[in-house]
Amino acid sequence: MLKFLGLTLLAVVVASLPARAVTVGEDGLHKEDWFSMTFRDIKEDVADAKAAGKRLAIVFEQRGCIYCREMHEKILSDPEVRDYIKANFMVVQYNMFGDEEVTDLDGETLTEKSAARKWGYVFTPTIVFFPEEVTGDVPVSEAAVATMPGAFGKWTFLNMFRWVREKGYEGDEHFQTYHARIIQELRAAGRLGAEE
């Protein structure tokens, strides 16, 4: 009985612990030490990601974004999510209202904020996924193979990265169908409860 009470108390304490604290940069954005720092030339970044055996993803965030904070503290801190993304993607962070220079795939030089407007990204976080190679001079919004606008839970988030890595966008299985199938498989394996 005491052992059961001790385990119950431990579970309550662990569940009440705050989410992982995340470093915030001078620009007000939450930082991951494994995000890539680049010159923000999209063609170069796609090529560099490919050379490393990865895919490029850019994430738009903004100062004070509670959903961005949640993404960093609860989703990117999860070892399963973080390790998968680190192994398979080169992630570059963009400030939705930033002034850093960006070179679009069509060669146009922009600021981060004018790039966000040009490409039509208005939510933070927004994650933009790229093909393994880029051909032609088209803007990012036309070259992207998938976009995840807004904040999602662990499995939707992770499954989008998996779907892109597996090139699901080239097949007939829509992301929502893929996601539902993976969730059913996780439930069958006992990794998820009925409520997830």
From TrEMBL:
<dbReference type="Pfam" id="PF13098">
    <property type="entry name" value="Thioredoxin_2"/>
</dbReference>
<dbReference type="InterPro" id="IPR012336">
    <property type="entry name" value="Thioredoxin-like_fold"/>
</dbReference>
<keyword id="KW-0560">Oxidoreductase</keyword>
<dbReference type="GO" id="GO:0016491">
    <property type="term" value="F:oxidoreductase activity"/>
</dbReference>
<dbReference type="InterPro" id="IPR041737">
    <property type="entry name" value="SoxW"/>
</dbReference>
<feature type="domain" description="Thioredoxin-like fold">
    <location>
        <begin position="49"/>
        <end position="139"/>
    </location>
</feature>
<dbReference type="InterPro" id="IPR036249">
    <property type="entry name" value="Thioredoxin-like_sf"/>
</dbReference>
<keyword id="KW-0732">Signal</keyword>
<feature type="signal peptide">
    <location>
        <begin position="1"/>
        <end position="21"/>
    </location>
</feature>
<protein>
    <submittedName>
        <fullName>Thioredoxin SoxW</fullName>
        <ecNumber>1.8.4.-</ecNumber>
    </submittedName>
</protein>
